[in-house]
Task: inverse folding
C-alpha cells in the first residue's frame, strides 16, 4: 500500500461521499475576504471536513480543497513557497512532524484566542506550549473478534496476546478455521506499526531519552518480534502482503476470527454489502490487548487535525482558520457523518463501533510519538523486519539492521552526528 | 505480402501458428475479460476469497440485487462520481501530448537521421541517459518550482512534462524509422531546388506515417496510462483517468468504490479498442501504398 | 545536413529535454551531495487529545540561522553514496574481512539494502529482456502471417497487457495469483500442493514478478517488430525464394537482419525499463521478497519523513547503473554509426 499511513486513519463509511447535507446552515462563516486552500487525505471523514470548509466560499472568499492519497508527497512542497499554495494541511500525529521539521506551519494561539470560541481543550495540539494544530478525530487499533467462534471454543475475548495465541490454537485444533488470526502485517509501514505496538506493549523505549539515538535491539525488542512471529504462525501464509485492506477482506470472507484492527475500519466490517449474515452478526470489538504481563496496551493512539500554513498573509490565515473551524462545528454531525470517525467534536455521541478506541484511550494507551525522527525509524523497521518474519535471520540481527538503517537515515537528516 | 505468404504456408505450420496465436491471446486477454465479466458483480464476488468460482457465478450479487449481474459499478463511476470529467481531461492530455510529441519528435528525429556529424550520436546517447532518471525522482523534483511559479495543478504543465519525458523514446524510435527512409528521396528533392524543410514537408511527411503512427501509439499510451506524473502534478478537479481510478480505490478502499474503479477501468479500455482498430488499417494502408519501398 | 538547419530542427525537442530533464538531473546530482543541516533538538511538553508528554522537537529558531546561511544544506560530498543505505563501503569491507567463504559473503551482502535490490534487479533484467524480445518477435511473425481481417482484433487483444493501467492490472492480478484466486487455484491443482502460495515464497515471488514483466512488456516489442516487418523488402524475399531458401532461412537471413536495428532499440529500452523495475513490486506488495533501486527511491520519498538526499543519491546510482548496463549496446551503436557515416 502506497500511503499506508493514511490507511489507518480511514473513516468508517460505506456510503460514497456524494451529498453533504450541510451546505446551507454554514454558508456564513464570518469570513470577509481571503483565500483558503486545503490539502489532505481523501477518506470520508476528511471529505466531510473539506466540504464543510468549501461551504464558506463566497464572492470574496475562495475555498479550494485537494484531497488525495498523495497528500503527504505534495503538502510540504505546497506549503514551502511564499505565499504558500496551501493555506492548510490536514495531518495526523505522525505526519505533522514533517511540517514542523521544516517550519511551514504557524502557531495558532492568537487565532484560537480570537476565534477559537468553543473548541475543546483536548482538541488543541500543543508543542512546547504553542498550539500547532486542531484535532477533530481519533483512532486506535484494538481487538476485533468473532463472537460465535469464541463461544464455540468456550473462551472469553482475549485480554492479552498470550490469550489470543491460546484461542487461535484451540480454533485451529478444533478445525473451525485454518488460519484464525488476522493482522495488517504487510512489509513496510504496517509491519513496522505492529512492531511499534508490540514493543510499546512490552514497555520498550524507542530512543535513549532526550536524544535521537535509537535503542530497540534489546530484550523487549526481541520479545516483541518473537510474539509477532508466534502470531504469524496462525495467519494466512501470505501475511507479509496483507495490509489493513486485505486483512479486512479476509475478515469479511469469514476466514479470520481474531485480529488487531483500526477502530475506523470496524464499521464497514459489520455493514457489508452482501457479506454473510454470520460475519455481520458476530463481529464484536473489545479493548486493545496487553502483552508480556505489561499494563500498557500494545497499541497507539492517533489523531487527525488541521494546521495553518506559515508563509501566508494574516488575512488568509484568519480565513483558513475560520473556514476549518466552521467545518468541524458540532452541527456537521448527522446520521451520515457521525459513523465516519471517532470525532473529537463537542456533542459527538459515540457509535458502538467507537467503543474500542475509547477503551484504548481509557486504558492509558500511549499516543504515537510526535518525534522529529520517529518516521525514519518507522521506515527502517518496515524495510528490515520482514527478513526475520520469513525466518531468514534472527530477531537480534533484524533489530540490528533496523538500527543501522535508521542511523544512516538520521545522520543524513542531521539528527545524529 | 502477408496474404501471399499465408497462402503458401503448409498446413502443419499453419496449425502451429494459429495455436500459438490463440494461446497468446488467451494469456493476454484473460485477465481483461475476467475483469469485464467481474465488473458487473459486487466486490465480494469479484475478489472472492472464499471460493474463486463466486467471481463467475456471483452468488452475493444475486443476494443483493436479485440477479447475478449489476450495473452499479458503472452507474457509480459515471453518474455519481462523474468519471466523464476525468475522461475529458485524459482526452485533452492525450491529444496534446501526441500532437506535440510527434511534432517535436519528427523534426528532431528527422534531423538526427539526416546529419552525419558525430554530435548526432552523442545527442542520442544523452537522450537515452536522460531517460534513465527514475520518473518518481523527476516528478518530486518538479514540485517545488511548479508550486513557486503557480504552474502546479493545471493540464498544460502535465502535458509539457509528459512530452519532455517521452522525447528520448520518441526521438530514438523516429530516428530509426527515418534512417529506413532512403536519403536519396530528399537528396533528389533538394537537387530540384527544395530547402531541407521543403524536402521534409513534401517528400518525407507523405511517407513517414507508418513509423509516426506506431510512435504516436506509444506516446498516446504513455499519456493515457501515466500515473506517476498526473497523480503528483494535477489538482483534484483536473485529474485524468488513471489518478481518478486510483482515487476511487483510495487508501482505505471504501466498499463499493472498488467496483467503481473496476467499472472505470473497463470503460477506459473501450476507446483504445476503437483506436487500435482504426490505426491498424492506417499502418497496413501505409504499407500497401508502397510508401516505404520508395 | 548543415549545423544551422540541424539546430532549428532539433531546437523544440532539445529545449523540452533541457528544461524538464537536464535541469532536474543537475538538481538531483546537487541534492545528492548535500544533506539537511544538523537539527538543533530541544525537549518540550506536547499536549493533545490524549494528555501531555515530554517530547523532543526541532528548535526552529536555532536551526533558522543555519538554514539562512547555507540554503542548500551542508555539503557532505560522497558521504551519502558510501553510507549503509547505498554502497555501504564500510559494511562491505567489514564483511569481506570477516566472512570466510564466498557464499557466506554474498548471503550477508544481501542483507544490505542496495545489494539486496541489485540482486533482484540484475536477475530481472537478465531474464526479462531476452524473453520479451523473443516472445515479441514470435508474436509479430505470427500476427503478420494471419489473414488481414483478423489482424486488427489480434493486435488489440495483444496490446491489452501493455495498456491496462499497471495500478489496476496489478490489483486484479494480485487477487488472481492469490492462493485462493483463479491462477493460484489452478497452480495448486497443477502442482498437487494445496498449500502452494506464490506470495509466501521468495523464489516463487521472483518468478511471478518476472512472468508479469514478460507478459506486460511483450506487446511493446511486438508492436515495434510488427511495424518493422511491414518494411521488409519484398524483392529480397522473392529472390531468396527463387534461390530455394526455406521459410526458416528466409526468416533467419532476410527478416531478422532487417529487424536488427529495431532489436537493438527494443533491447536498449527494455534494459533500461527493466533496470528501473518498480510498479510490479508495489503492485504485488512483494517488498518483503524483492526490491529494486526505484523501490528504494519510492521508500525514501514515501515515508513519514522524506529522505530527499538519499533518494537523489539512489537516482544518480540508477543512472550510472543504466549507463554501465547499456554500454555494450552503445558501443555497438557507435560502430554502426561510424560505419554509416563513412
Result:
Amino acid at each position: 500500500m502506497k500511503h499506508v499511513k493514511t490507511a489507518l486513519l480511514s473513516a468508517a463509511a460505506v456510503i460514497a461521499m456524494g451529498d453533504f447535507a450541510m451546505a446551507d446552515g454554514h454558508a456564513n462563516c464570518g469570513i470577509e475576504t481571503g483565500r483558503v486552500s486545503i490539502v489532505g487525505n481523501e477518506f470520508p471523514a476528511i471529505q466531510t471536513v473539506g466540504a464543510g470548509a468549501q461551504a464558506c466560499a463566497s464572492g470574496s472568499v475562495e475555498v479550494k480543497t485537494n484531497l488525495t492519497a498523495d497528500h503527504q508527497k505534495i503538502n510540504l512542497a505546497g506549503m514551502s513557497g511564499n505565499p504558500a499554495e496551501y493555506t492548510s494541511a490536514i495531518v495526523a500525529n505522525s505526519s505533522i512532524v514533517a511540517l514542523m521539521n521544516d517550519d511551514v506551519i504557524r502557531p495558532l494561539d492568537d487565532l484560537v484566542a480570537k476565534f477559537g470560541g468553543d473548541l475543546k481543550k483536548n482538541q488543541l495540539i500543543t508543542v512546547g506550549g504553542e498550539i500547532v494544530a486542531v484535532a477533530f478525530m481519533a483512532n486506535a487499533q484494538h481487538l476485533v473478534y468473532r463472537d460465535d467462534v469464541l463461544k464455540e471454543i468456550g473462551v472469553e475475548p482475549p485480554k492479552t496476546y498470550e490469550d489470543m495465541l491460546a484461542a487461535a490454537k484451540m480454533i485451529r485444533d478444533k478445525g473451525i478455521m485454518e488460519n484464525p488470526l488476522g493482522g495488517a502485517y504487510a512489509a513496510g509501514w504496517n509491519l513496522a506499526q505492529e512492531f511499534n505496538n508490540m514493543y510499546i506493549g512490552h514497555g520498550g523505549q524507542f530512543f535513549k531519552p532526550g536524544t535521537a539515538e535509537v535503542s530497540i535491539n534489546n530484550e523487549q525488542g526481541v520479545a516483541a518480534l518473537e510474539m509477532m512471529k508466534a502470531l504469524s504462525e496462525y495467519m494466512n501464509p501470505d501475511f507479509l502482503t496483507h495490509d489493513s485492506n486485505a486483512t479486512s477482506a479476509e475478515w469479511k470472507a469469514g476466514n479470520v476470527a481474531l485480529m488487531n484492527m483500526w477502530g475506523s475500519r470496524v464499521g464497514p466490517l459489520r455493514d457489508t454489502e452482501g457479506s454473510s449474515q454470520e460475519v455481520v452478526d458476530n463481529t464484536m470489538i473489545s479493548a486493545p490487548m496487553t502483552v508480556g504481563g505489561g499494563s500498557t496496551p500494545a497499541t497507539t493512539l492517533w489523531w487527525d487535525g488541521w494546521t495553518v500554513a506559515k508563509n501566508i498573509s494574516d488575512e488568509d490565515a484568519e480565513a483558513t482558520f475560520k473556514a476549518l473551524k466552521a467545518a468541524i462545528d458540532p452541527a456537521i454531525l448527522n446520521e451520515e457523518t457521525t459513523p465516519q470517525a471517532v470525532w473529537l467534536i463537542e456533542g459527538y455521541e459515540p457509535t458502538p463501533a467507537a467503543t474500542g478506541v475509547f477503551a484504548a484511550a481509557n486504558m492509558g494507551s500511549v499516543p504515537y510519538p510526535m518525534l522529529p525522527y520517529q518516521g525514519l525509524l518507522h521506515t527502517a523497521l518496515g524495510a528490515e523486519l520482514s527478513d526475520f518474519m520469513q525466518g531468514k535471520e534472527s530477531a537480534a540481527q533484524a533489530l540490528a539492521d533496523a538500527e543501522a538503517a535508521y542511523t544512516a537515515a538520521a545522520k543524513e537528516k542531521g539528527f545524529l552526528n | 505480402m502477408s496474404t501471399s505468404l499465408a497462402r503458401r504456408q503448409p498446413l502443419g505450420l499453419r496449425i502451429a501458428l494459429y495455436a500459438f496465436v490463440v494461446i497468446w491471446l488467451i494469456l493476454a486477454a484473460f485477465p481483461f475479460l475476467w475483469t469485464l465479466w467481474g465488473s458487473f458483480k459486487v466486490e465480494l464476488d469479484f475478489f472472492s476469497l472464499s471460493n474463486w468460482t463466486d467471481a463467475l457465478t456471483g452468488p452475493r450479487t444475486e443476494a443483493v440485487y436479485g440477479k447475478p449481474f449489476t450495473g452499479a459499478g458503472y452507474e457509480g463511476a459515471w453518474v455519481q462520481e462523474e468519471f466523464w470529467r476525468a475522461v475529458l481531461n485524459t482526452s485533452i492530455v492525450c491529444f496534446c501530448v501526441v500532437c506535440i510529441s510527434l511534432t517535436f519528435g519528427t523534426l528532431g528525429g528527422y534531423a538526427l537521421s539526416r546529419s552525419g556529424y558525430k554530435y548526432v550520436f552523442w545527442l542520442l546517447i544523452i537522450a537515452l541517459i536522460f531517460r534513465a532518471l527514475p520518473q518518481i525522482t523527476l516528478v518530486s523534483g518538479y514540485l517545488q518550482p511548479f508550486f513557486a511559479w503557480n504552474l502546479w495543478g493545471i493540464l498544460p504543465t502535465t502535458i509539457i512534462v509528459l512530452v519532455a519525458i517521452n522525447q528520448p523514446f520518441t526521438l530514438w524510435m523516429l530516428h530509426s524509422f527515418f534512417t529506413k527512409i532512403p536519403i536519396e528521396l530528399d537528396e533528389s528533392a533538394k537537387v530540384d531546388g527544395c530547402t531541407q524543410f521543403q524536402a521534409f514537408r513534401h517528400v518525407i511527411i507523405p511517407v513517414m506515417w507508418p513509423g509516426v503512427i506506431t510512435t504516436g501509439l506509444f506516446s498516446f499510451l504513455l499519456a493515457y496510462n501515466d500515473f506517476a506524473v498526473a497523480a503528483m502534478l494535477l489538482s483534484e478537479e483536473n485529474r485524468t483517468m488513471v489518478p481518478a481510478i486510483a482515487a476511487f480505490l483510495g487508501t482505505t478502499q471504501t466498499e463499493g468504490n472498488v467496483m467503481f474503479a473496476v467499472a472505470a477501468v473497463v470503460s477506459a479500455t473501450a476507446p483504445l479498442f476503437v483506436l487500435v482498430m482504426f490505426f491498424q488499417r492506417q499502418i497496413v494502408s501505409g504499407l500497401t501504398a508502397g510508401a516505404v519501398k520508395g | 545536413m548543415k549545423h544551422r538547419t540541424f539546430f532549428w530542427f532539433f531546437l523544440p525537442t532539445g529545449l523540452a529535454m533541457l528544461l524538464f530533464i537536464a535541469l532536474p538531473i543537475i538538481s538531483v546530482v546537487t541534492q545528492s551531495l548535500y544533506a539537511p543541516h544538523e537539527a538543533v533538538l530541544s525537549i518540550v511538553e506536547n499536549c493533545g487529545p490524549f494528555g501531555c508528554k515530554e517530547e523532543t522537537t526541532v528548535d526552529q529558531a536555532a536551526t533558522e540561522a543555519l538554514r539562512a546561511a547555507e540554503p542548500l544544506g551542508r555539503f557532505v560530498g560522497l558521504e551519502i553514496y558510501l553510507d549503509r543505505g547505498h554502497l555501504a563501503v564500510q559494511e562491505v569491507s567489514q564483511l569481506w574481512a570477516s566472512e570466510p567463504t564466498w557464499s557466506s559473503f554474498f548471503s550477508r551482502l544481501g542483507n544490505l539494502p542496495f545489494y539486496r535490490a541489485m540482486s533482484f534487479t540484475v536477475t530481472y533484467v537478465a531474464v526479462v529482456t531476452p524473453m520479451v524480445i523473443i516472445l515479441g518477435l514470435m508474436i509479430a511473425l505470427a500476427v503478420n502471417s494471419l489473414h488481414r481481417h483478423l489482424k486488427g482484433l489480434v493486435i488489440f487483444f495483444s496490446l491489452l497487457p501493455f495498456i491496462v493501467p499497471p495500478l489496476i492490472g496489478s490489483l486484479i492480478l494480485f487477487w488472481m495469483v492469490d492462493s485462493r484466486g483463479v491462477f493460484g487455484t489452478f497452480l495448486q491443482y497443477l502442482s498437487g500442493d494445496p498449500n502452494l502460495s506464490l506470495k509466501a515464497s521468495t523464489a516463487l515471488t521472483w518468478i511471478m514478478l518476472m512472468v508479469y514483466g514478460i507478459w506486460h512488456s511483450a506487446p511493446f516489442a511486438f508492436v515495434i517488430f510488427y511495424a518493422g516487418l511491414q518494411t521488409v523488402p519484398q524483392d529480397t524475399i522473392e529472390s531468396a525464394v527463387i534461390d530455394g531458401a526455406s521459410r526458416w532461412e528466409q526468416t533467419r537471413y532476410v527478416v531478422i537482419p532487417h529487424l536488427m536495428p529495431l532489436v537493438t532499440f527494443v533491447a536498449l529500452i527494455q534494459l533500461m525499463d527493466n533496470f528501473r523495475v518498480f510498479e510490479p513490486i508495489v503492485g504485488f506488495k512483494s517488498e518483503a521478497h524483492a526490491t529494486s533501486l526505484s523501490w528504494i527511491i519510492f521508500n525514501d520519498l514515501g515515508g513519514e519523513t522524506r529522505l530527499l538526499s538519499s533518494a537523489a543519491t539512489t537516482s544518480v546510482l540508477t543512472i550510472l547503473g543504466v549507463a554501465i548496463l547499456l554500454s555494450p549496446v552503445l558501443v555497438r551503436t557507435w560502430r554502426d554509426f561510424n560505419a554509416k557515416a563513412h
User: Anything to note?
Assistant: Chain C touches chain A through 58 residues (CB under 8 Å). The radius of gyration of chain C is 26 Å.
